[in-house]
Amino acid sequence: MSRAVTLDDAIGALEQAFMDYNRGDIALGGRLMAPCGKPGDTSLVLPATHIRKQYYGFKQATTFSENAGRGLPTVLSQYFLYSNVTGQPRAVMDFMEMTSIKTGVAAAIAARHLARPDTRVVGIIGSGVLSRPVLAAICRVMKIERVNIFDLNPRQARVFATYAQEVLDVECLVAESSRGCVRDAQIVCTCTTSRKPVLDGDDLSPGCHINAMGSYNLDMQELDEKTVNRADRIVTDVPRDTLNASGDLACLANKDVVAALDRIMSGEIPGRKSEKDITIYESVGFSVLDMALALFAHEACLSKGFGQDVAFSSRDSEQ
Amino acid sequence: MSRAVTLDDAIGALEQAFMDYNRGDIALGGRLMAPCGKPGDTSLVLPATHIRKQYYGFKQATTFSENAGRGLPTVLSQYFLYSNVTGQPRAVMDFMEMTSIKTGVAAAIAARHLARPDTRVVGIIGSGVLSRPVLAAICRVMKIERVNIFDLNPRQARVFATYAQEVLDVECLVAESSRGCVRDAQIVCTCTTSRKPVLDGDDLSPGCHINAMGSYNLDMQELDEKTVNRADRIVTDVPRDTLNASGDLACLANKDVVAALDRIMSGEIPGRKSEKDITIYESVGFSVLDMALALFAHEACLSKGFGQDVAFSSRDSEQ
């Protein structure tokens, strides 16, 4: 699917999706977590409805932890799109790469609205699957001069550095510590699957914006208590859900700093108030964005005549 | 998909599925009901895992009430099948016709295990989508000589009668009342979407078995209080779920008569104890059967080289 959608397309589609959600034009469904595979493996179903465009759909994402040993991705996902007029199926699409793009773009949108406008340096901890799309997307929305990368696996960090330099044309410093990665960065992205903090809040420079992208359940944690309680503003997609879904915010003393990103974007709630504010975007997955990106890809495939990645895809005769 | 599976195949596969469920070889997932379309329209996701055969999957079924006015089915459904080893997708299939077959076959299996062995007459109330597969399946498992059909729409009842006579080679009487339909029947099937009783318990003959197939939420009701409280044995797929899912059983005084069909089939719990017992199979949908039938169809498609109804379908290299 990703061949049908450029990064700029995705940024535009997801900025629009936050605004559609803010106005009630896209609605969140519930979520279903079902066991499958070995104990601990799961299937997650995440529905949403695009009321304005008259589609509904859901993402199905599986986590099979033993896949790593098979050379397969641990997380697999697909998107299923339906007419919201008749319930007829409209498209089935592989959604693995699109999910990474969505997560990276959402973090870039958060950075655009919360980071210091004079940001030039990004620090990224963890050079896995999320690191490339988040840097690529941030580079489309801000003027980035250098990225610092830190990974416990230095070889993987060097591969990332080559990508940053060759593909994105951004200077890249392979840091030897978390501290070296974050201390001169105005935006810090944590892209790990860690169960304990990957940075020390004392290392952050004043005015830093953090995209905490890896923790999506209460057992996972990338930020330490100092970082969380230094924050002047913490934004999430759906605050109540995020407080129950990320281990990062379990230690949060003052819940009043938490706000929904769409309400910052619409101007209802202030985001950054000074150059020295610490801001955090805590990302746990937002099915509104999956829906919007799947629908954008579907419409792009129809208009461009693409079909090779789409199992079935058809126009809605009623619409 | 239904071209890949004969009715006898489906009967064998679903008898096996009840036994697999009884032994813990197929596990039920939860269920997710999401709003879509107009108020009252829904999307239902029903997962299950075939532990022995190493597949998991889910059915997605939509109810769009205004579809009838468009000449489209009100209920649409698809099945999504995955490897339970890796989470990789294995098949997507349209599941509308398969759902009707499943429901009809499950009722026939219940009748085989609960109705009087000397049953010769079946009464069917409601000549809609469920009436044909249930009669066809009962005729495969019992020696039926006549069917009585009653429908508020006599024209539709006559179309059903032609089907029964021409396709199934069974004599068919178009009854002028519910009473005329059920009074000499040893098996009665209610196949309506009614919100109030469609038969009078006093009209049932002693020894009758009833397949109550239409009610799948608390607002729907086909059986009257007399029928329910006359019953010596009521079987369902998952008793606790059924008691919360069907309006038929809201009036039940003695919950001890309720038992799971798989436990009757395995001999753990007695079913019919005498020729005069009234028995009821209350059917609200059982995702274990959807899984088993989808997997049977998938395997049949692979072994027969069929592919025309399958959007994507592949063997699991690990299995």
Automatic annotation (TrEMBL), chains A, B:
InterPro entries: NAD(P)-bd_dom_sf, ODC_Mu_crystall, ODC_N
Single GO cellular component term: cytoplasm
Protein name: Ornithine cyclodeaminase
Organism: Desulfosarcina alkanivorans
